[in-house]
Amino acid sequence: MTSSETLSAALRAATATAHERAETSTFVEDLLAGRSCAGAFTALAVQQLPIYAALEDILTTHYSDHPLLRAVHDPALARTNALRHDVTTLLTQGYAGPTTPETVTRDVDRLLVDATRDYVQCLREEHDAPMLLAHHYVRYLGDLSGGQVIARLVARHYAVPQEALTFYRFEQIPALKPYKDGYRRALDTISLHDRTRALVLDRAIEAFELSAALFADLGRAMSERHLAAGVAA
Hints:
It contains eleven helices and no strands. By secondary structure, the chain is mostly helical.
């Protein structure tokens, strides 16, 4: 890999293995194949909420006009409010046990897995511009791409209502494919020294590894929940 390679191409190549490992986790494969339940999707949405809240708080507070982030930062990508709406909808509809609007915050904390707490801690305690650029790329391009598949399949397999899937609808982006192409072009305009470029690539790999750890924890949690339900039955 040389510095003449575009940043978008370098990110795609560098993260390929970690990306595949995350998206082929047992939790994700079961969820998308219809072998899981609406409760598993709810648990996933719950994990995403504090991650996006941390990412977007840090981004807007410290990096929205940073030279490394300026080209890709776009308020139209913000997901925290949509996630909060979806999580509240899913929890109050009973997909993860009895919940009321007044107890949503408590129940979100109760449902967080250790890997999610580690993810949030990493964002809040270790953030710098290369890290934020890497996580911005991994999370938002993922939402604009594979996230759209997730939304379709969980609606089909588990009858998750559309009002609980607003996270996946980018209302201010009318056409996702041209936007993604433009995002990659914007990435390629960012001027990076070799050392900073290497940091961005490493942090992007780490972002996928954090997601893989989260999926592994969720898989264990859901297995324990299903086992307990089977024993109870």
